[in-house]
Each structure stands twice: as structure tokens, then as C-alpha cells.
Specification:
- This protein is an all-alpha fold.
- It folds into two domains: 91 residues, Rna Polymerase Sigma Factor, Chain: A (Orthogonal Bundle), CATH 1.10.1740; 65 residues, Arc Repressor Mutant, subunit A (Orthogonal Bundle), CATH 1.10.10.
- It contains seven helices and no strands.
- The longest helix has 26 residues.
């Protein structure tokens, strides 16, 4: 297999970097750690040089790698620190709801991010996360319920 041409890598980065950054941030709650995870994912892309069927397959592969890297980083941090520090603000999304999404537990944050921010279907998320579609649907329903409760409490203030 030929190595990726510089132009190809530039296009891949341009198409996917923001999606990957938001997914990593949903796991890590740190802009700098999310950026590191994205950079590591692109290094893996260069090392493995997989063949993609289309842009959708490329994006799914990169998101999966990024989420795995972010989860591993979060686990590594938990081993050394009792509680992860709350860091800088989320990447600009224009969504007020994002602060509430980031308060959800990791399984709920990831499915909400992939469904609403990345536009994946439940079946696509199930394949991406290697989970049954029913589990993804349940997590989405529970996350929505938690978000609704949070928003109602915020409105009551």
C-alpha cells in the first residue's frame, strides 16, 4: 500500500478534526487532552494507513480510534488522580445545552454526542461502539431523560 500523499492527509484532517475533537472532549473534559487524543489518532492513521470505502467509513474509523484513545487517557488519569480537574471551556459549538451534556456520565455523553452532534443513527452508533442497538437506544433515552430533568431544574432557578 502506498503511503498517504500529503494532500490526502490534509484533506482527511480538514474533514474530520473538529468531529474528533468534540468526541474526545466529551470523554476527557479538557481541550488540551482532547487535542492530544486527536493528534494521536492521526498518528495511528499514518502508521496503519487503512483503506476506507468512503468518507463515512473514514469518519467512523477516526471517531472510534479517537474515542478509544480518549477513554484510555481518562482511565490512565483516574489511576493517578482521585478526581479529574475541571478544565477549560468546551470547543465553541453555539449550544447552551452542551454544558448539561458534559455533566452526563461517559456512556450517555458519547451516545448523545454521536447521535445529535455527529448525526449517526442508533444502528450506526451500535456498530461504532460495538454495542447492541437496544443498548444504544436505552442510553439515548436515559440521557434525554437526565437532560430534561437538568433543563427543568435550570428553568426553575
Amino acid at each position: 500500500m502506498e503511503p498517504f500523499a500529503g494532500k490526502d492527509i490534509d484533506q482527511i484532517v480538514e474533514r474530520n478534526a473538529q468531529h474528533m475533537l468534540r468526541a474526545a472532549y466529551a470523554v476527557l473534559h479538557s481541550t488540551s487532552d482532547a487535542q492530544d487524543a486527536v493528534q494521536d489518532a492521526f498518528l495511528i492513521l499514518l502508521q496503519k494507513q487503512p483503506t476506507f470505502h468512503d468518507a463515512s467509513h473514514e469518519k467512523a474509523w477516526l471517531l472510534r480510534v479517537t474515542i478509544n484513545i480518549a477513554k484510555n487517557e481518562a482511565k490512565r488519569k483516574r489511576r493517578f488522580v482521585d478526581e479529574l480537574p475541571q478544565e477549560t471551556a468546551a470547543p465553541e459549538t453555539g449550544e447552551d445545552v452542551l454544558s448539561f451534556v458534559l455533566q452526563l456520565s461517559e456512556p450517555y455523553r458519547i451516545v448523545i454526542h454521536l447521535y445529535y452532534y455527529e448525526g449517526y443513527s442508533i444502528q450506526e452508533i451500535a456498530r461504532l461502539l460495538h454495542l447492541p442497538a437496544a443498548t444504544v437506544g436505552t442510553r439515548l433515552a436515559r440521557a434525554r431523560k437526565q437532560l430534561k430533568t437538568m433543563l427543568e431544574q435550570e428553568d426553575a432557578k
